[in-house]
Amino acid sequence: MRKMRVLVACEESQGVCKAFRARGHEAYSCDLQECSGGHPEWHIQDDVLKHLNDGWDMMIGFPPCTYLSSVQTFICRTDSQRVMKRIDGAKFFMELYNYPIEKIAIENPTGVMSHIFREPDQIIHPYYFGDSVMKRTGLWLKNLPKLIHTPSTNMFGECTYGVVPPPEKTWIQKSTGKMKYQRQVNRPFISGKERSVLSTNIARAMAEQWG
Question: How far is CA 140 from CA 61, 65, 137, 168, 172, in A?
Answer without folding.
Answer: 10, 14, 10, 30, 35
